[in-house]
From TrEMBL:
This is tRNA modification GTPase MnmE. InterPro entries: G_TrmE (IPR031168), GTP-bd (IPR006073), GTP-bd_TrmE_N (IPR018948), GTPase_MnmE (IPR004520), MnmE_dom2 (IPR027368), MnmE_helical (IPR025867), P-loop_NTPase (IPR027417), Small_GTP-bd (IPR005225). It is an enzyme of class 3 (hydrolase). Exhibits a very high intrinsic GTPase hydrolysis rate. Involved in the addition of a carboxymethylaminomethyl (cmnm) group at the wobble position (U34) of certain tRNAs, forming tRNA-cmnm(5)s(2)U34. Pfam families: MMR_HSR1, MnmE_helical, TrmE_N. It is found in: Cytoplasm. Keywords: Cytoplasm, GTP-binding, Hydrolase, Magnesium, Metal-binding, Nucleotide-binding, Potassium, tRNA processing.
Length: 437
């Protein structure tokens, strides 16, 4: 139980039609008496007048809702004041709350942190909530909502429960081997189950980084020779002049990125320097960065001008076919052999190109059919868990050591949900939240 009661604007930037101010902590009932004149009935929207606790001056009027703990977002008593979203009105209420002894302004993510500390949500659910607030696309919304509702928590806690049960059988053999009701070699029963668990975690990890790409954005690199139309295509996709376009070859010297939605997914498209042999030191650096962008991209789009050879550079021939798309450009100047041909002058073929991109992205990312890893910390913890499980099934080791490896595997899963030793993670995780959440 926290000694201080916290408050903050929880509904976003002002001005707005409605502003929601959230108060959480042990002094909620006293705060309601001073601001509203009485404590509203639980979980029922009540019309109220908000008054200054010292002067009695009317500050605003609106709805108040009281959520008694532990059945609230934070697990504590919570009061929400829903008033008008004018800057002056909100500032007046926040100033009035600050004048009440025992209240202070909430820090970023503090409401969510209290929800975690009061066992209302685990870390994976809170990370999902953070992603839900930041979601820009339908794919991000669907994945974040699923995670915030406990899909990953249920999966990881189920695996952890299996490990705890396996350890219990082993400990029984180690500690009570002389008892009649504990048969010898009872631990032999657990190793097939551990192997099954290893395979399940391996399948979960082998997802092509689907969840991370949905969350962070699917990366596409535009590559081609100088004057292939890369910058023109980028401007056409962005529907604004992002990159400089001139007839002079080698205009683009550095990478330029834009973010956009294609279908239901976030996509980051990178324009790069034209690939060619050059003595210009700056242009060579730009070409080096272009090749690096290609190697890190989820999809490389090679622009092949209709009035030039369509040969792919040697440096790009190592890219798998499923990560490479060749399109013809400058369709207004000549006939291209490519299946997809675009002209940014007449905007021909852009719709076909975008549909092809959408199909490829959907094939790679899917539509959120199953729980997906969305953060690197999840992947790291699961890899460590899997490594410990693999050590535990080595029959040449003593049973005590195999049991210890199982314990370590369970601890790695516990760190994912926040059950074990995560103090060093909390500040990082909750810093992603805004004040009021």
């Amino acid at each position: 139980m926290h000694e201080k009661t916290i408050f903050a604007l929880s509904s976003g930037s002002l001005p707005s039609g409605v502003a929601i101010i959230r108060v959480s902590g042990p002094a909620v009932a006293d705060t309601a008496e001073k601001i509203l004149g009485c404590l509203p009935p639980p979980r029922k929207a009540t019309f109220s007048r908000f008054r200054h606790p010292s002067t009695g001056d009317l500050l605003d009027e609106g709805l108040s809702i009281y959520f008694p703990g532990p059945n609230s977002f934070t697990g504590e008593d919570v009061l929400e004041l829903q008033g008008h979203g004018g800057k002056a009105s909100v500032e007046a209420i926040l100033t009035a709350l600050a004048s009440i002894e025992g209240l202070r302004v909430a820090e970023a993510g503090e409401f969510s942190r209290r929800a975690f500390e009061n066992n209302r949500m685990d870390l994976t659910e809170l990370e999902g909530l953070s992603d839900l607030i930041a979601a820009q696309t339908e794919g991000q919304r669907r994945q974040a909502l699923s995670q915030s509702q406990g899909v990953l928590r249920a999966l990881y806690e189920g695996w952890r429960s299996d490990i705890i049960q396996a350890r219990a059988l082993i400990e029984a053999e180690l500690d009570f081997a002389d008892e009649d009701d504990v048969p010898g070699s009872v631990s032999d029963q657990v190793w097939s189950g551990v192997l099954t668990l290893i395979n399940q975690i391996s399948d979960h990890l082998d997802d092509g980084r689907r969840g991370e790409l949905i969350r962070e954005g699917f990366s596409i690199a535009l590559l081609g020779p100088p004057n292939a139309g890369k910058s023109s295509l980028l401007n056409a996709l962005a529907r604004r002049d992002v990159a400089i376009v001139t007839p002079q070859a080698g205009t683009t010297r550095d990478t330029i990125e834009i973010s956009m939605r294609i279908g239901e997914h976030l996509v980051v498209i990178t324009d790069t320097a034209g690939l060619r042999q050059t003595d210009d030191e700056i242009e060579r650096e730009g070409i080096k960065r272009a090749v690096q962008a290609a190697r890190h991209a989820d999809l490389v789009v090679w622009l092949s001008p209709s009035d030039a050879p369509a040969d792919l550079p040697v440096k790009l021939r190592e890219i798998p076919n499923e990560q490479l798309l060749t399109i013809g450009t400058k369709a207004d100047l000549a006939t291209s052999q490519c299946e997809i041909v675009v002209s940014t002058v007449y905007t021909n073929g852009l719709d076909v190109f975008l549909r092809e991109l959408e199909d490829r992205i959907d094939k790679r990312l899917g539509h959120g059919e199953s729980a997906a890893l969305s953060r690197q910390r999840h992947r790291f913890a699961l890899n460590e868990c899997s490594n410990c499980l693999r050590l535990s099934i080595q029959s040449k080791l003593d049973l005590e050591l195999r049991s210890e490896h199982l314990r370590q595997a369970g601890d790695h899963l516990g760190r994912l949900t926040g059950r074990i030793d995560v103090e060093d993670l909390l500040d990082v995780i909750f810093s992603e939240f805004c004040v009021g959440k």
